[in-house]
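lol ok so funny story. i was supposed to be doing the assay writeup but got distracted and ended up predicting the structure for this chain instead. priorities right. anyway since i did it might as well share w the group, maybe its usefull for someone
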Amino acid sequence: MSGFRQFILRGNVVDLAVGIVVGAAFSTVVNDFVKAFLTPMVGLATGSVGDFSTRTVRIGKTDFPYGGFINGLLAFILTAIMLYYLVVLPVNRLIAHFHGKDDAPPPPRRECPECLSSIPAEARRCAYCTAVLPERSE
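and the output, tada:
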């Protein structure tokens, strides 16, 4: 039982559980936003109500309710667009802002005379073949 307790109280398990709960709540908010605002805008653009859930096509004696699929597809596309522009892009910009660009040039390199591997110019021994390297004369 103590092993199970240690497993559950590990930080990454608790973080994962919190992430799932927050993700589910966020998903509900995004879905409601899509249903309340974006789907009606699609309806305005297409000249209909924006709710395609009652649309069906009858083939023979069978009804195919394709409207639910169209609603789901629109909700998925609009949700993906919203998440990209409202979450992914700002987070990427924030990460780039805090990490900044690595302006340091790479250290100079030279080739090992024995194995021809690229090694740091300041090295005294090759990391690949362990040959002792001659001193560099500048």
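The mean pLDDT is 81. The chain is about 55% helix and 10% strand.
back to the writeup now i swear
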